[in-house]
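Q: Given only this backbone (382 positions), what sequence would you predict?
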């Protein structure tokens, strides 16, 4: 496999229509395809992808990344728009991957000889009464070469997707054959443009998720979407997470964000406020769209320089992990697996399951009992 040592990555920051029926997806998909056609114009020397060039661009566009929700909008349970998990599946708002949408994106990937990453709510026939939030990559052959299911859904935002961890045993049985647990839940795909890994939104709050990819060699980590009020100043959590993850894991972070939600959502239009960015392995922001709205930005990726950096022993964080001690941090299980494995006890939305089971509150109580957290005075603490 011949490496493409220098190429350009593009973050597409879309304006997204909220999907309430299957036909709505087509509008978002068609606009995404328009943005793919436009992508070469955010390189130093703009050109149409289909035109035969009499020179070789120093960093041709080889990776295009879309954020979470770019096909379906921000979907959530009844509290926000009256559509629960069963309705998502019944209305075919969730898609199959691979399927017709990835085929359309794959045709563009094949036409332009590049890689396209996206995120969509996915229906898996192995789990017919739930759906996942899936990051996928289609390659230059037009086929889906990578799939990752969001590991840590944002249940506090009433997110409707389940984590593979919520159906842990069955998921391992189906998808873990011949793989380690890490490979099953955090896949890394080796390509001519580097070893690629993906995360989604809430996943970024957990440094372990980035590290799970990096320890398997991920060189380019695509992490899409974040929400207000923690994207913009004074919080800047989006930037902090992206830059630290790049620095701590010696990896490029490609971070597309949604620019605006159209009417139909009960959230503000700038619930996602843009600020798409590309960060290099030294934690420096190479490109940025520091405003909401539809946009695109790009930066060159220097794979050979990244690989040179990784063999320098100075501040080589991955090779200096004191794992014997760190294992003690995770000696005891904390968040329970298989929470939604039983269809008979699952509520209409994962949020209802989450509230009814009160797993999180039980864990907080355990932390207080074990002295990890201190009980506040208003709850009877000292």
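A: Predicted residues:
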């Amino acid at each position: 496999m011949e490496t493409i040592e220098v190429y350009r990555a593009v973050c597409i920051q879309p304006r997204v229509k909220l999907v309430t029926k299957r036909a709505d997806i087509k509008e978002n998909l068609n606009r995404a395809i328009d943005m793919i056609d436009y992508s070469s114009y955010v390189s130093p020397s703009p050109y149409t992808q289909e035109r035969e060039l009499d020179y070789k661009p120093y960093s041709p566009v080889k990776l295009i990344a879309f954020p979470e929700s770019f096909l379906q909008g921000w979907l959530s349970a009844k509290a926000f728009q009256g559509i629960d998990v069963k309705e998502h599946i019944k209305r075919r708002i969730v898609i199959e991957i691979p399927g017709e949408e990835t085929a359309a994106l794959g045709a563009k990937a094949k036409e332009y000889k590049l890689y396209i990453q996206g995120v969509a709510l996915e229906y898996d026939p192995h789990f017919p009464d739930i759906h996942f939030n899936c990051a996928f990559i289609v390659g230059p052959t037009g086929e889906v070469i990578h799939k990752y299911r969001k590991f840590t859904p944002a249940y506090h935002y009433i997110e409707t997707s389940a984590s593979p961890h919520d159906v842990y045993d069955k998921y391992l049985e189906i998808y873990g054959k011949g793989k380690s647990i890490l490979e099953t839940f955090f896949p890394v795909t080796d390509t001519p443009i580097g070893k690629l890994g993906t995360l989604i939104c809430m996943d970024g709050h957990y440094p372990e998720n980035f590290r799970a990819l990096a320890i398997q060699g991920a060189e380019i980590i695509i992490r899409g979407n974040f929400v207000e009020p923690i994207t913009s100043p004074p919080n800047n959590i989006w930037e902090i997470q992206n830059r630290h993850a790049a620095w701590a894991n010696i990896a490029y972070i490609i971070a597309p964000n949604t620019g605006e939600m159209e009417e139909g959502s009960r959230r503000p239009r700038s619930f996602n406020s843009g600020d798409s960015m590309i960060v290099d392995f030294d934690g420096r922001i190479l490109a940025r769209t520091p405003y909401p709205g539809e946009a695109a930005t790009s930066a060159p990726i220097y794979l050979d320089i990244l690989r040179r950096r990784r063999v320098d022993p100075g501040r080589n964080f991955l090779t200096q992990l004191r794992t014997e001690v760190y294992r003690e941090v995770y000696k005891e299980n904390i968040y329970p697996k298989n929470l939604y494995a039983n269809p008979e006890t699952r509520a209409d939305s994962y949020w209802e399951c989450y509230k009814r089971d009160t797993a999180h509150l039980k864990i907080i109580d355990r932390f207080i009992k074990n002295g990890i957290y201190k009980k506040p005075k208003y709850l009877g603490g000292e």
